[in-house]
# Entry
Amino acid sequence: MLARQTGVTASLAAEEVTLDADTALEELYAAHWRRLVRLAVLLLRDQGAAEEVVQDAFVAMHGRWRSLRDPDKALAYLRQTVVNRSRSALRHRGVVERYVARQDPATALADPADAPALVGDRRSAVLDAMRALPTRQREVLALRHYLELSEAEIADALGISRGSVKAHASRGSAALRALLADPLQQGDL
Amino acid sequence: MDDLTTLLHEAVGTIEPTDRLAAIREQAARPPRARWYAVGGAVLATAAVITGIAVVAQPSAGPGPGPGQDPTAVETPESRDGAIPVYYIGETPQGPRLFREFHPVPPGASVVGGAVLATTAPIDPDYRTSWADGSLTSERGDEQVARVSIPPALVDRPAGMSGYEAELAIQQVVYTVSAQQGGPPRVEFLVGAKAAEQVLGVTLDGPVSRAPQLDVLATVNISAPDEGREVDGHFSANGVASSFEGTVHWDLRNLDDEVVRDGVAQGTMEDHLTPWATGDIDVSDLPDGLYTFEASSDDPSGGEGGGPTVDTRVIIVR
# Structure
């Protein structure tokens, strides 16, 4: 009898915390859509492509909600999927883009000496500099400095060791600082 | 907050994404089968990449990617240093067939879960996979048999998929698994904990072996160069083929579709695919830009047999 009661209580409790996939989708969308799109912009540069990638990630998350079941796990899955799919999107875009960049050197980093330190310039300089980093470094920096994840969470999201996270973070920070030497010196930071 | 945290927040802090909840809901609400099929067709946008799910870093590995692997390194038909073979579906005059594509693996990484590779995105946009991200899960197997779980929704054939396409999708998994170093020659599909008696509507009576190559593989396949390879001065190409009298025609075309280089690579004619190679191709006098390298089978019928099987790679000459 006692065992049965416990069983009933446990299943009731499980029902209380179990969200269905549609509700979970809506709650996670409300809480994380904007932040994940912004994360993808840091990875991809292009907002349209970023929205595509995050949209696909939400659809994929909904599809496997039954094995995720938990909003924290689902968020970890969303992050991981956004990073993976951004990388995939970049790779397919890579061929044409590298070619175009070579043909048109004017699309490289704007010369910061040209204009006063406008915030808009600094924004695009940061995004350009992120794009110039090796993929792993860019991913680690975005997860660490934008999503503010811990080393362990980053290691989990990228499927690499914590040691590698540290190494990519320190190389990436140094490279980004070097690329952004001017914006960083400009005043109010 | 440190300076980089501030900078990154500032860089994207004013971005206001459009509201896509309705589109997400609609996509998510499609029945799994239909979506599975749609995903198979639109694989570029949806599948995960190999480095994300199938490769794990070894604890002993040094941090960061090293210098790129030389994609023209000597290969045997099933292996290439620093790269893993994955089979994808592409079009030929005989209908869809499997093409093999090598994916570079970061130094110090090792591959896990061969079957999962079949759910990854091809690098060459001419290829596709039938398996959506997450549709295959590698289970514990042994040296003879790899075990792969599929969701119950994939026991029956998705609407719109032909019997041949279903068998090709199954062979895509078997070929990919058995092409991995140490990969078992057969694959057993599981649904839940039990052996699947049917996958995609194809009845199975136990673990599946490779079908004969000429039944499922494209008769011409490029192993190198990789799609998007940058070429400086010269390059060489190689691959596998089964072509009339062993002859593989190749050419290099510019964006105006003008042939700027061509030649013939001689292989052998067997009942399976055998290696071919072009030797050194000098491109030092070509203007920088995108070119398409194309390899094709010999077509002695002059087109009556549907024309030659063709495989292509886009390269960048600089």
About this structure: The first helix of chain A runs from residue 2 to 17. The radius of gyration of chain A is 21 Å. Chain A touches chain B through 72 residues (CB under 8 Å). DSSP finds ten helices and no strands in chain A.
